[in-house]
């Protein structure tokens, strides 16, 4: 559900990213990297407590994202109508992701210009928590498809507001030499949240209200820690936000003048698109292909997740440490894309649970390798450094767009062959798509 996982020389948010400074930021990045100077001037190193709170808050956020996206939403949908669950789930997730494409950047740009005495990021963290609570209540008691859809749309506002508060932190508060480490810990938090989401979900199916509210309660606790730990300040006085149209104009950028950022954006899109098929439909794969009940499938997913977690943590923590140590990002993208592709294909042809578990573990290790450098690579190639909320929102649009298109396209792929359950083709296609990240990473010049 997860969950990236994120400016312009003129400080006005109404200008577009075409107005890059005379000095080419790509060339600057190459020079800095060649000299081995990946530090961020003026940003002090962060300590253990900051790192702990940062990781816990992302864990809570991912739990709010993953509980519905990996289990509870699919469970609710199949309870209402088992015969059309694949199409209904795809429609709900796809429409929600398209809404997120709109509201995500709006929250990001507005947060860059918020001059609240409480800071420019903190208000959106609280707003997002309130939206998450409302969404959980709506979906839990929803009597039909349309009410579930409304609840899921509210969830997109929640995720977008929270992302606007959290994702700029890596670029604003963490020096380059520590970004790989904290990015890796974010990946570990995501992996643990994914395992707990499916495991806890399988035990909470008897109480839908608790099933949807439990992750929100956990997130509320860590939000308190974030608010008292992570510093924040109002936006500078010259920061401005115009009309909604101006906001979307400001999100436009020339990929020819920000080539590295554009390639990194496209690479994330490929990986997220490839993984979206597996992540969204793995519960239904166990139900339809392997014949499990929803409760036993949830526990089997948690079992695979537990094994996968070890592989994910190894590749995430190890990758983050090596990435900072070697000052390299791209080799980890190559590894991630290849492993996600291989894992997807193994799962696609799985005749039983053991083969599926092997494929899922390989895929999870690939996700870990990607998580180890995802945010760090994005932060390293931001075209300019004045509007991190905006640029990270643009970066996360890649994942949102993949999440929007994947579930909409998936039912059409599943229908090939007539049975509506062609998971072999669906997962294989996703694996092939993920390999696009290898090509895009090769084309990045400002990072190694």
Write up this protein.
The protein has 448 residues and is mainly alpha-helical. It is built from 17 helices and no strands. The protein has one domain (25-442): MFS general substrate transporter like domains (Growth Hormone, Chain: A), CATH 1.20.1250.20. The chain has helices spanning 25-34, 48-80, 85-112, 122-141, 145-166, 169-173, 176-203, 208-229, 244-251, 259-288, 294-326, 330-348, 353-371, 374-380, 388-414, 423-434, 436-442. The protein is globular.
Brief summary:
The chain has 448 residues and is mainly α.
Query: Which descriptor suits the 3D outline?
Result: globular
CATH level 1 class label: Mainly Alpha
First CA to last CA: what distance? 30 Å
Beta content comes to under 5%
User: Count of helical segments?
Assistant: 17
Write the layout of secondary structure elements.
Elements: H1 25-34, H2 48-80, H3 85-112, H4 122-141, H5 145-166, H6 169-173, H7 176-203, H8 208-229, H9 244-251, H10 259-288, H11 294-326, H12 330-348, H13 353-371, H14 374-380, H15 388-414, H16 423-434, H17 436-442
Helix pairs in contact: 2-3, 2-5, 2-7, 2-8, 2-10, 3-5, 3-9, 3-15, 4-5, 4-8, 7-11, 7-13, 7-14, 10-11, 10-12, 10-15, 10-16, 10-17, 11-13, 12-13, 12-16, 12-17
């Amino acid at each position: 559900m997860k969950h990236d996982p994120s400016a312009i020389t003129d400080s006005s948010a109404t200008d577009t990213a075409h107005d890059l400074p005379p000095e080419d930021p790509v060339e600057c990045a190459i020079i800095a990297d060649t000299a081995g100077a990946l530090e961020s001037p003026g940003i002090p190193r962060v300590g253990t407590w900051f790192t702990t709170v940062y990781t816990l808050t992302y864990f809570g956020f991912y739990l709010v994202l993953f509980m519905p996206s990996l289990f509870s939403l699919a469970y609710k949908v199949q309870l209402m109508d088992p015969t059309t669950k694949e199409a209904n789930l795809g429609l709900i997730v796809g429409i929600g992701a398209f809404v997120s494409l709109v509201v995500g950047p709006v929250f990001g740009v507005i947060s860059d210009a918020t001059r609240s005495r409480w800071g420019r990021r903190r208000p959106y963290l609280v707003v997002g928590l309130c939206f998450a609570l409302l969404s959980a209540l709506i979906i839990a008691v929803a009597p039909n498809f349309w009410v579930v859809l409304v609840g899921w749309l509210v969830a997109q506002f929640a995720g977008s507001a929270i992302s606007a508060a959290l994702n700029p932190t890596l670029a604003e508060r963490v020096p380059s030499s520590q970004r790989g480490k904290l990015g890796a810990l974010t990946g570990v938090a995501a992996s643990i949240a994914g395992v707990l989401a499916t495991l806890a979900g399988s035990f909470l199916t008897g109480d839908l209200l608790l099933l949807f509210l439990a992750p929100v309660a956990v997130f509320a606790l860590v939000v308190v820690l974030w608010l008292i730990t992570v510093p924040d300040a109002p936006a500078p006085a010259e920061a401005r936000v115009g009309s909604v149209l101006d906001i979307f104009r400001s999100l436009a950028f020339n990929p020819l003048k920000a080539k590295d950022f554009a390639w990194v954006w496209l690479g994330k899109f490929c990986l997220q698109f490839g993984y979206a098929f597996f992540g969204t439909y793995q519960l239904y794969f166990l139900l339809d292909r392997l014949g499990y009940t929803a409760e036993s499938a949830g526990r089997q997913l948690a079992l695979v997740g537990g094994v996968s977690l070890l592989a994910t943590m190894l590749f995430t923590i190890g990758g983050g440490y090596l990435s900072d140590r070697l000052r390299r990002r791209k080799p980890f993208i190559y590894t991630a894309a290849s492993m996600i592709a291989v894992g997807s294909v193994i799962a696609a042809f799985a005749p039983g649970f053991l083969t599926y578990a092997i494929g899922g573990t390989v895929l999870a290790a690939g996700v870990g390798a990607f998580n180890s450098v995802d945010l760090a690579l994005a932060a390293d190639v931001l075209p300019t450094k004045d509007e991190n909320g905006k640029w990270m929102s643009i970066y996360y649009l890649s994942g949102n767009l993949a999440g929007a298109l994947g579930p909409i396209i998936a039912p059409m792929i599943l229908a090939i062959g007539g049975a509506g359950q062609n998971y072999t083709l669906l997962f294989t296609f996703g694996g092939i798509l993920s390999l696009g990240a290898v090509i895009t990473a090769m084309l990045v010049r400002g990072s190694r």
